[in-house]
Amino acid sequence: MTNYIFLVLPRWGFFNNFLKNNNWMATVFYILTPQQTTFMFLITLLISINRYIAVKYPLSYETFFSKSKVVIILLSFVILSTMIGLGNIPFNPSYEIFDLFGYFIPILKSKSVIYYQFFYTIILFGMISIATCTFNVMAILTIKKLNQNGNKQKRELYYIIYSIFIFITVFFVEAYFICRFIALKYKIKFFIDINYFFNVV
């Protein structure tokens, strides 16, 4: 919905004059998009940790994931992801026709934004992705070790399928950010095309 309102509609020519004269709309976009993406990565990590603890330490599960602790964790995720989004404000968001893409889109005018984006899209998201995949693998290995009957075999199969899906999803999302970073940093059309492919996928 965020991309549709702030990217697709302007490409179709809707509200362009309004957006060009109201930079706060671009600011909202650059707050919401990183906030939502960061929150998605963190939730994926939380689910992986949740599943790992459930199979590795079932007796301690309630201790780690009591209702109060889950609420605190989710609030922490909201705060952290919002801070990532707010970090884009100093980089002068505005709507312009961006030569690299040829679209009327929100851009960040400051050249130094590339370093901030490298931090949260490559380093932060990369670390979260690695941790997510690691906990998924450890959970699978734990299930295989504890596997003794047909029901557990079925559960193991479901979890393997889920883990593969998460790995592929995280891979495509992280590849998208890497290609976007290279495209914006070095203005290479090849990476723009790859970025478009990942965006469609």
Automatic annotation (TrEMBL):
Which GO MF term does the entry hold, naming one? transmembrane signaling receptor activity
Using the record's annotation, list all stretches that form the G-protein coupled receptors family 1 profile domain.
1-201
Q: Which InterPro entries match?
A: 7TM_GPCR_serpentine_rcpt_Srg, GPCR_Rhodpsn_7TM
As for membrane topology, the entry says: Multi-pass membrane protein
Family recorded in the similarity comment: Belongs to the nematode receptor-like protein srg family.
Which domain of life does this protein belong to? Eukaryota
Instruction: Could you list this entry's UniProt keywords, alphabetically sorted.
Output: Membrane, Transmembrane, Transmembrane helix
User: Is-annotated flag, keyword Membrane?
Assistant: yes
Primary location recorded for the protein, binned into one broad class: membrane
Q: Give the UniProt subcellular location, in the record's own words.
A: Membrane
Write down the species: Strongyloides papillosus (Intestinal threadworm)
Recorded protein name is Serpentine receptor class gamma
Biological process (GO), any one: sensory perception of chemical stimulus
- Offer a single GO CC term for the protein: membrane
Q: Read off the Pfam families from this record.
A: Srg
Q: What is the lineage of its organism?
A: Eukaryota, Metazoa, Ecdysozoa, Nematoda, Chromadorea
**Which segments cross the bilayer?**
24-49, 70-91, 114-137, 157-178
